[in-house]
Specification:
Radius of gyration: 51 Å
Number of strands: 2
Helix content: 55-70%
Mean pLDDT: 71
Largest sheet: 2 strands, antiparallel
């Protein structure tokens, strides 16, 4: 105890001799403030504990009239309540300094490291984090560029050949960070679907031979794997994912194509992705045979005439069909008139018999 007190007394005497160390014109540094407030807090805590042991009260105090942030604030009194108030203030300041210290930890450790390392021919720091934007360099470059332009103009005016070669601006040196094995493995290109099929067990039969459906295996493309993950997630969580109408239609088409052995990794059709070996490819002949008439490219089915009758035509078309129907009725009427009736035939036969007698 006596040794520590004598050492503290010697340090105080040295500080009194050297007044330059106490210059605080630009404010107190963070480290000095932290140490000072910690010592003051411990001192107040010891005094408050001693006063409580003696049985003194904590209610008497004489606070200053100025605010806590006032620069020239008066000192507190010597009562026990004043010690308690100063201890609370010191505790608040210590909590605030911890936040500032966490923000300035990098600068503080950098300064401490520089002071600890021996200087050999000047301080050289190769810190990758030291490369940051410096707005002042832009102003300096602009001033130097204007000075160079004026000197070049004066040289050309004086008859001296100026250097017109373009020289790009110098770039700041950047540290080379070598990629790790995991990063190089992630940057590899994806394996093609044709090679991915070779990883299957050769002893197992192909999908085409067992199911009769064309196309590659269902999980050969990334889209198929994504749909499988969606299905597993919905089945495990007993829920349906909410998606847009176009996405839901696309998912339904892709699932139909996968169910029929289609490959989602090939081609794009007029409606987006076109699955090879899917629903349209498996039943293409049937769909073409029953497709509707489109510009005379298809014969249509048996219901095409009913579809035409169901459509409402314009007045000109209705007049044409009505006129054709009337002409057809007149022709049938003339044919019926030219044909003799049974009475006329029997009358003709009777006349022939009478003439023979």
């Amino acid at each position: 105890m006596t040794k520590s007190l004598s050492a503290a007394r010697a340090a105080l005497q040295s500080i009194k001799r050297d007044q330059q160390t106490l210059e605080v014109q630009n404010g107190i540094s963070l480290l000095s403030l932290k140490h000072y407030m910690l010592v003051s807090y411990l001192q107040s805590l010891v005094l408050v504990t001693a006063q409580r042991v003696l049985g003194n009260t904590l209610t008497t105090h004489s606070p200053p009239d100025q605010h806590f942030s006032t620069k020239d604030r008066d000192l507190r009194g010597n009562h026990l309540g004043d010690l308690l108030d100063s201890m609370i203030e010191n505790r608040i300041v210590l909590d605030k300094t911890e936040v500032l210290e966490s923000k300035m930890r990098y600068q503080i450790t950098k300064l401490v490291r520089i002071t600890d390392t021996p200087t050999q021919g000047g301080i050289t720091t190769d810190d990758p984090l030291a490369f940051k934007p410096n707005p002042m360099s832009l102003l300096q470059n602009h001033s130097t560029f204007s000075q160079e332009g004026t000197t070049q103009n004066t040289d050309v005016g004086n008859g001296i050949d100026g250097d017109t070669i373009y020289r790009p601006p110098r770039l700041a040196p950047m540290p080379y960070v070598e990629r790790s094995k995991t990063q190089t493995r992630q940057r590899r290109p994806p394996v093609p679907s044709a090679l991915a099929n070779l990883a299957a067990d050769p002893s197992q039969p192909f999908l085409e031979t067992t199911s009769g459906l064309g196309g590659a295996p269902a999980l050969a493309s990334g889209r198929a794997q994504y749909l499988k993950k969606l299905k597993d997630f919905e089945e495990d969580n007993f829920t349906r994912l909410v998606m847009k109408k176009n996405d839901a239609k696309q998912r339904a088409r892709d699932e139909e194509a996968l169910a029929l052995g289609g490959d989602l990794s090939t081609g794009f059709g007029p409606r987006g992705r076109q699955a090879a070996g899917g629903f349209d490819d498996e039943f293409s002949e049937v769909l073409r045979s029953v497709s509707r008439v489109n510009g005379g490219r298809s014969q249509g089915d048996g219901y095409e005439e009913l579809r035409k009758r169901g459509k409402k035509t314009d007045a000109f078309e209705r007049s044409r069909t009505k006129r054709n129907a009337e002409e057809r009725d007149d022709d049938q009427a003339s044919e019926r008139r030219s044909k003799r009736s049974r009475f006329e035939l029997e009358t003709k036969v009777a006349k022939k018999k009478v003439s023979k007698r």
